[in-house]
Design a protein that fits this description.
single chain, alpha/beta, Rossmann fold, 9 helices, 11 strands, 18% strand
């Protein structure tokens, strides 16, 4: 194996990228140039992606952050205890829907909780999505890992995401058969582990598949559109289609099926409120993206005017020097 001393992006990669999300990320296939002594690698081109799993960059920025590129399956790892959060899971599932990858959820650390508790948690997750596959595992006891190994086929790229301390590193170690990732002990008070993985890394598995391990995700902000949100909340969208009026605001309107479902208990009010919050978040994201586009266009026009003015000045100067003025 050749160890490279340095690597850098070629000029074409920088030129072709409209923003940071267009630059190579973990999971991307790239075209390389090697130095004569293999002491430097230059990335000449990022090959087209067939998918990317992204979130909005943390903070007030209206930019996309690619967590993994060219992924076939996104595995969200959680546990039935302190990390269990249906509203956060809705965010993950919505972003996976946009990515176009296959959604899988692992309820890890099942050894720490009663079986009935784990079964109830799994059932709640199944109620969130019609397509997500839910599995209960215990990386510590190697329980349920055969199901995960079933996804790791040649030519398949999987990425693991989830909060810190849910057992992602332990899962990776079990799959690779060694101490590939550093792990930490579980806190006896919170039932959570400490953050151990500090960077994204792509690993070639013995089975032939590719695994992208991610650090713990603290914020999972939306980077999607209204259509994907409706696909992810298909139950809410189906109810909205049954409302008496097509422009129903679902706020006490006559013949509103959603309000009726909430009152009767067939639609979880927390899930509906989550849908409204995500809808509002996406609208705000779209406003910020539009504002950013307008600012970029203004700068581009200004730069074109400056370049044209400078060119005109240069032509006039050359004419004067030739005595043609």
């Amino acid at each position: 194996m050749v160890t490279t001393r340095s690597q850098r992006l070629g000029g074409k990669v920088w030129h072709d990228a409209e923003n940071d999300a267009d630059l190579p990320s973990v999971g991307d296939w790239v075209a390389l140039d090697r130095g004569e002594n293999c002491d430097e690698v230059i990335i000449r081109e990022r090959l087209p992606r067939f998918s990317r799993f992204s979130r909005k960059m943390p903070g007030k920025s209206a930019q996309e952050q690619v967590l993994a590129a060219n992924v076939d399956i996104v595995v969200v790892v959680t546990d039935p205890g302190a990390d269990f959060n249906l509203r956060r899971m809705e965010r993950y599932l919505t972003l996976i829907e946009r990515c176009g990858a296959r959604p899988v959820v692992l309820l890890n650390k099942a050894d720490l909780f009663p079986e009935k508790h784990c079964m109830n948690a799994a059932e709640e997750l199944r109620n969130l999505s019609r397509v997500a596959e839910i599995h209960t595992t215990s990386a510590k006891e190697c329980r349920g890992l055969d199901v995960l190994r079933g996804y790791l086929k040649p030519g398949v790229t999987i990425t693991l995401v989830g909060s810190s301390g849910v057992g992602k590193s332990t899962l990776v170690n079990q799959l690779l058969g060694g101490e590939w990732q550093e792990t930490s002990e579980v806190n006896e008070v919170t039932g959570r582990g400490r953050h151990t993985t500090s960077h994204r890394e792509l690993v070639v598995l013995p089975e032939g598949g590719l695994l992208i391990d991610n650090p713990g995700v603290r914020e999972i902000q939306m980077w999607t559109d209204e259509f994907t949100l409706r696909e992810s909340f298909a139950d809410v969208d189906d109810l909205a289609a049954q409302c008496r009026f097509t422009d129903c605001k679902h706020e006490g309107d006559t013949g509103c099926v959603i309000q009726l479902a909430v009152e009767e208990g067939s639609l979880d009010p927390d899930r509906y409120q989550s849908y409204l919050r995500l809808e509002e978040e996406i609208e705000e994201l779209n406003r910020r993206r539009q504002k950013r586009r307008m600012a970029t266009e203004r700068w581009a026009k200004r730069n074109r005017r400056v370049k044209a003015r400078n060119l005109a000045d240069r032509i006039e100067l050359e004419k004067e020097e030739r005595g043609e003025a």
